């Protein structure tokens, strides 16, 4: 393995007489692999040309750092802490401490996980890619074994760079998921100091050197005295100026439906890739159909990802007419006729297309979805992590072999829209079959399932 190559980037190396050939291979069996020359060794000393070594690439995410705590309680417990069943409520520091201590004393806690939609995405990306990501946010200055900050750090991949977190004198966020005896979920949220990330803590050089900047709509939901929104806007503007793709995940329909016009203008001005579920898609576009909503979002962004629960994933993007590739799958018509015709195309930024063509794909859940869904929290974060893995792989490959024929097309991603959609579905499946919202391991290179046709094309 050459210096700087991770095992996610370097699955197969084949040596021919004078040329090393390398295969980019994502999890899952692929019949079509891309082989490309990495370097030409000097025949006299058999040494690799040092100029061919890959530059380090990474993604950066900004998040409200918090811990998810799940417990089973009864209605009397909820009433004691003035929590309304089935609702999401902000709770004070005092109530938070009393609530947590009561749950601990009575051994009611089922799980404690590191949380946050971007924190989950950075962790999942680093697990899938076995590569570096950087998380920006705040972290308690004083950390004790077993406390909330400790829980967050101990449940985050070591490949996630936490060195840029801003220290604060106080707690990080805590989100309590309280499940009553009829299965209804009640949420108690204590923000702590998660929204105190200061603009001065945003390293512009770090942002400018990233393969992507990832943010969530939650960063714009702050109170007086909070500085998170200012910090996020500074990072976004820096990424825009440096040509770094900005990725936004909407997070919750309740936030979007309050000001849909604001979000439409924001994504049109600042965002390249938009990730959402069908409810959030309805909130920002007013369109119920996930496919048509994704198509509407192409009026504002370059690439759109829309998860639709048991219906799977819809994706929409652009490709130049010159580089379009027709699908080998049966063509499908829905609200858009023959919408998957060019799903084998690699998506591009709209500005890089001379004759832009809109492309779409849809993937049903992997293996029809799990027999038993243990958790839906974090499935969308796994989807986005898989897309980011593909995007960063493209940057990695371009750094390694800038003159490769693959980069005659100025594509945004390494794989086609269709392959990315299937990979994202596969990653989300792993979250759905476990209790934790984060991946605990990478995906297998070869599936145990006999249904290999999923990866065949």
From TrEMBL:
<feature type="domain" description="Carbohydrate kinase PfkB">
    <location>
        <begin position="148"/>
        <end position="317"/>
    </location>
</feature>
<dbReference type="InterPro" id="IPR052700">
    <property type="entry name" value="Carb_kinase_PfkB-like"/>
</dbReference>
<dbReference type="GO" id="GO:0016301">
    <property type="term" value="F:kinase activity"/>
</dbReference>
<dbReference type="InterPro" id="IPR029056">
    <property type="entry name" value="Ribokinase-like"/>
</dbReference>
<keyword id="KW-0808">Transferase</keyword>
<comment type="similarity">
    <text>Belongs to the carbohydrate kinase PfkB family.</text>
</comment>
<dbReference type="Pfam" id="PF00294">
    <property type="entry name" value="PfkB"/>
</dbReference>
<protein>
    <submittedName>
        <fullName>Inosine-guanosine kinase</fullName>
    </submittedName>
</protein>
<dbReference type="InterPro" id="IPR011611">
    <property type="entry name" value="PfkB_dom"/>
</dbReference>
<keyword id="KW-0418">Kinase</keyword>
């Amino acid at each position: 393995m050459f210096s700087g190559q991770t095992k996610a980037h370097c699955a197969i190396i084949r040596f021919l007489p004078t040329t090393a050939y390398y295969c980019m291979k994502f999890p899952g069996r692929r019949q079509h692999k891309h082989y490309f020359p990495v370097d030409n060794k000097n025949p006299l000393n058999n040494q690799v040309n040092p100029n061919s070594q890959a530059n380090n690439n990474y993604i950066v995410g900004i998040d409200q750092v918090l811990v998810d705590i799940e417990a089973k309680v009864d209605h009397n417990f909820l009433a004691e802490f003035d929590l309304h069943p089935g609702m999401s409520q902000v709770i004070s520091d005092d109530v938070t401490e009393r609530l947590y201590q009561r749950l601990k004393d009575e051994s009611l806690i089922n799980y404690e996980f590191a949380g946050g939609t971007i924190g989950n995405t950075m962790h999942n990306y680093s697990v899938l890619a076995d590569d570096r990501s950087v998380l920006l946010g705040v972290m308690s200055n004083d950390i004790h074994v077993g406390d909330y900050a400790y829980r967050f750090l101990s449940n985050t991949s070591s490949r996630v760079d936490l060195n840029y977190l801003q220290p604060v004198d106080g707690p990080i966020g805590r989100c309590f998921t309280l499940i009553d005896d009829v299965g209804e979920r009640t949420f108690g949220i204590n923000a702590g100091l998660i929204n105190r990330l200061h603009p001065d803590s945003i390293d512009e050089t770090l942002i400018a050197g990233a393969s992507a900047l990832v943010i969530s709509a939650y960063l714009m939901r702050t109170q007086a005295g909070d500085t998170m929104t200012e910090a996020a806007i500074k990072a976004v503007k820096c990424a825009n100026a440096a040509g770094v793709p900005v990725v936004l995940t909407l997070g919750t329909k309740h936030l979007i439906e309050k000001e849909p016009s604001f979000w439409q203008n924001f994504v049109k001005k600042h965002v390249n890739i938009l990730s959402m579920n069908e409810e959030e898609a309805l909130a920002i576009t007013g369109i119920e159909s996930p496919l048509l909503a994704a198509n509407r979002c192409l009026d504002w962004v370059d690439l759109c990802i829309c998860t639709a629960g048991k219906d799977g994933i819809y994706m929409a993007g652009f490709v130049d007419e010159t580089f379009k590739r027709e699908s080998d799958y049966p063509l499908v018509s829905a609200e858009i006729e023959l919408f998957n015709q060019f799903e084998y195309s690699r998506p591009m930024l709209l500005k890089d297309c001379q004759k832009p063509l809109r492309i779409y794909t849809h993937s049903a859940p992997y293996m029809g979805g799990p027999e038993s869904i243990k958790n839906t929290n974090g499935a969308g974060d796994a989807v986005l992590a898989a897309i980011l893995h593909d995007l960063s792989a493209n940057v990695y490959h371009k750094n390694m072999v800038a003159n490769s024929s693959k980069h005659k097309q100025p594509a945004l991603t390494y794989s086609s829209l269709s392959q990315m959609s299937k990979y994202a579905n596969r990653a989300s499946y792993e979250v759905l079959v476990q209790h934790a919202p984060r991946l605990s391991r990478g995906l297998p290179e070869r599936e145990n399932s006999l249904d290999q046709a999923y990866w065949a094309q």
